[in-house]
């Protein structure tokens, strides 16, 4: 147990040192996910108002070097393109104010080519379908002001098929409700300004029932709490204006207890080892709840609100 202190400086240290841990096993097993990792780390620094601690030019060059001939981005050099890494690449460039250096038309063609007749999206050329990929596609096109290039009604129709009786959403039609997938579906509907078409109170209840007696949130019934649901659940509640349906002070204490007092960083559960994914999403949760004077993160785009406000074409109705 700790007092309620957020170890801001230690978390900044933890993140900027991640790229120096090249002797670690974990560094190499996550090598193909470097683009996602870079987005989590950079965005965590943004929330902590320390984005200047990152080597801007070197990072931009590396991101641009991962754009493939088909327009999509890979997770690292010598890997294959995917919608997941393409969204992270756009999110990184946007935070560095470097979208003008991106071959936007190629990205848009890539995303558009992955939409299927039923409105769903493949994640890449290999044809896996998942509501995560729908969210990535819609977020990318919205950030680039190119949503008119896809069939948005079909997207909404497909998302509707992934909704379950409990109000939550799965990765495919008929799949179990999961908070992560619920974020992707609520986020997609929010971006397309179609949230008013769903039953907000039913999904609100399912989401707030994710809080456990220890204050943490789980991702579906009977599962244990995990800090990353402080994003997947809380962002969804925030987008539907139901953040006050959970006990925020108890969640704050849970996240604080997951900090590593020595190395900095936040873990999935108290006493576990920290990682950049849970560090970012733990900070996101605290930011959404308005604690510690953190930079505000947008619950739908998972980017700092101040960054999004520079994009005049966006209409952030949920903030
Ligand atoms: C820009 C924030 C952002 C996201 C991009 C990748 C993506 C779009 C969304 C991922 C949504 C998702 C499915 C999140 C859940 C991740 C997670 C913790 C999965 C663990 O699932 P299980 O079944 O864990 O291993 P539980 O907690 O259910 O035991
Ligand atoms: Zn987790």
Q: What can you tell me about this protein's structure?
A:
With 319 residues, this protein is mainly α. The protein has one domain: Alpha/alpha barrel (Glycosyltransferase), CATH 1.50.10.20. 46% of the residues lie in helices and 0% in strands. The chain contains 14 helices and no strands. It has helices spanning 8-17, 25-29, 34-47, 56-65, 83-95, 104-113, 131-143, 152-161, 179-191, 200-208, 229-239, 248-257, 276-289, 305-308. α3 runs parallel beside α13 (276-289). The longest helix has 14 residues, at 34-47. The relative contact order is 0.12. The protein binds geranylgeranyl diphosphate and zinc ion. Zinc ion binds at residues 226, 228, 268, 278. Geranylgeranyl diphosphate (GRG) binds next to α5, α7 and α9. Keywords: Metal-binding, Prenyltransferase, Repeat, Transferase, Zinc. Belongs to the protein prenyltransferase subunit beta family. It comes from Tieghemostelium lacteum. One of its GO terms (molecular function) is metal ion binding. It catalyses: geranylgeranyl diphosphate + L-cysteinyl-[protein] = S-geranylgeranyl-L-cysteinyl-[protein] + diphosphate.
